[in-house]
Structure formats: C-alpha cells, structure tokens
Amino acid sequence: MPGGPLLVRGAQEVIDADGVAHPVERPVVAVCACGATGRAPWCDGTHARISPRR
Length: 54
Description:
The chain is mainly beta. The protein has strands spanning 6-9, 13-15, 21-23, 28-31.
C-alpha cells in the first residue's frame, strides 16, 4: 500500500530519527514510513486512513 510500512526482518533493534534504539522482539516488524503513526517507530495502520503520499 502506498505510504505503508517498511517490513524489517531479523533486526535486533530499530533506531529512530532521534537516535533512540527500540528493541525488536519479533522476527518481522513493521516500521512506519508515512510519519503519522501514534506508536513511532512502529506502524499502527494510520497510513490506511490518510491519503497516500505522492
């Protein structure tokens, strides 16, 4: 889906834009790419409710 998440496989942590490390507890995680999530850096499905980026 346009503006949807980035799927990350096999990571031990995800570092956000502020340099904060977030531990990964699953084999695959969805990282927000639209910037509208309420659970940064994780995708919460907000991209499905907003218009796609162009």
